[in-house]
What we know:
Blueprint: E1 2-8, H1 14-17, E2 30-32, E3 37-40, E4 46-47, H2 57-63, E5 68-88, E6 93-114, E7 123-130, E8 134-144, E9 155-161, H3 165-178, E10 190-196, H4 203-206, E11 211-215, H5 220-234, E12 241-245, E13 249-251, H6 253-265, E14 274-276, E15 278-281, E16 287-290, E17 293-295, E18 301-303, E19 308-309, H7 313-319, E20 329-330, E21 335-339, H8 340-346, H9 357-365, E22 370-371, E23 377-380, H10 389-407, H11 415-428, H12 432-445, H13 449-453, H14 457-465, E24 472-473, H15 494-502, E25 520-523, H16 530-533, E26 538-543, E27 548-553, H17 556-591, H18 594-600
Parallel strand pairs: 9-10, 9-12, 10-11, 14-22, 15-23, 25-26
Antiparallel strand pairs: 1-8, 2-3, 3-8, 4-7, 5-6, 5-7, 5-8, 12-21, 13-23, 14-21, 15-16, 16-19, 17-18, 17-20, 24-27, 26-27
Amino acid sequence: MLKKLQNIIFPTDEKLQAHWDLYYSGPRCVVDENSNRLWLPAGVTVGFATYLNGFSLEKWKRYTPLQSVELRVTLQGKCCVQLVGYSLNPSLPERREILRKDCDFAQPQELCLPYPDESKDQMLAFELLPYENCMLYGGAFYGEYQPEAERQVVLSLATTTCRKEEFITHNIQLLKQELLCEGSDLRDNLYVHVVDNGRTLDPKSMDGYHVTVHPNKNAGGSGGYARGMIESLHQTPKATHVLLMDDDVLVLPESIRRTYVLLTLSKPEYYDSFVSGAMLEYGAMNMQHEDVGTVTTGGDWRPARERRDQTKLANVLKTDMEILPMDCPYAGWWYCCIPAESIEKNGLPLPLFIRCDDLEYSQRCKPAHFLTMTGICIWHMGFGYKYNVSMDHYQRFRNMLIARATTNTFTVMDIMARLRMEYRSQMLEFAYNGSEIILRALEDYMKGPEFIMEDQGEKILQENSKLNERMKPIESFGMEVRIEDVYRNPTRKLLDTLLYRLTYNGHRFWPKAWLKKQPGIIGGDTSYQPEQQVLRQKLLAVNVYDRTANLRVQDRKRYRTIQKRYRMDLLKYALDHKKVEARYAAARSYLTSEKFWRKYLEL
């Protein structure tokens, strides 16, 4: 049985055309969007050992019972086709030439070239050397399987949106044109559920074959995905897998197609796995931010791999290697495919509104594997651009404490130690609103599960957003700010360290008149730069991405008020947290049930 595993694709999207080297290497060629062909100039080599078009032989063999591979390409003109294989040796790409074939086609003609069955390369690819101007009309990698290797998959894509019409309408139209069209191998087994939390979409104009818009109560990302899961499990036929995807992303339909094919051919030991799509940065489209993440003992989460430029072949090969086992891996819900059996066994998301829902769910389900593959990805606005204290402190700390208590996740973390550290950091850099937000998170967590059973996520978000810093253009402060120096963090002098700690950065035991009048310049996010802020009267907190800032001023009265509240909150936590945790644990089955979510969403 021969199965098409992945198509050769070209950069037809306007934003991606400037990053053609994610698709092919060599000079930039002309893409004819109408006929989907690539014009190749004579005398140059164009290679397809790239992030989006290289064939991940090692992973296809690991995840599926692949027997052999062949390449099929449709060409016109006179050229040489070379089959090649690549592996890392030890950290640089090692190229192996497998086969050369000269072609001279007056009209478009398909060429079929098999790779040797004994190939042990990490990646398979091909190169074209035109002797005259040629055209590549596309192609695909095919794999040979035993008939019993294939299983029936019904894939449901659930995407949650809230007033992001530009992104969501573009993506849905793309899916209709390429995956739900006549002749598509996914047409009958792909269903799309658009959960509209903002209720701004017109279902009549967007609904179509296997596409349904669901106006939904704004219960945040967790509420939207819960609704998408419910609809997927109750559709006819019932979904076997649910693919969760963000709305404000750029997606390639080919990524969804490869996910589907991978699911239909996966080995039984991978049936309960999550497929975790990579997030590349929308503002720097060649940079991969994350495909699988991990929760750290220090109370944070981070990508399991370093940030990498995926136009470099060595980086592509490093990224496509299997991730070593981690204590607390997770798959982000910008692109995460979950088996329906996992949802039925482990329940729906917790009602966290936004943040940490995907981390908690991965840890609750504990899939045996997180499957990743180059080319299964989306482009998302980088998280660095989105920082605001109400989201990144309140939602983070409250939800992580809830997740740990409810489903016994994040046990490797000392969440309270991280909370205390972040609280102190905010106070030391005069971000008093940030400190209050952290205390709100702890206080609301201590109210127990009954607090999150009520629909007040949007109300909380609006209230907390009032404490976000009001940023202005840097120029309005009349100060010279070098963007490249904002995150400068010189080593602290010993005397500065002692005074900084003793006086809580000038909040106590230190005359106001002795504070430095020149404002210190610091990053406006979670950076910590003590030598830049020691014993200052004012601090200019800068957002380097949009070149805005806020001038913070030391306020000793507010410091004392917040510190008193902080001590009381810690005392209450010490006395009552075990009882509160027991209440959350007892409420888990209800909080993650369809019965709860139907009531919560007023379905």
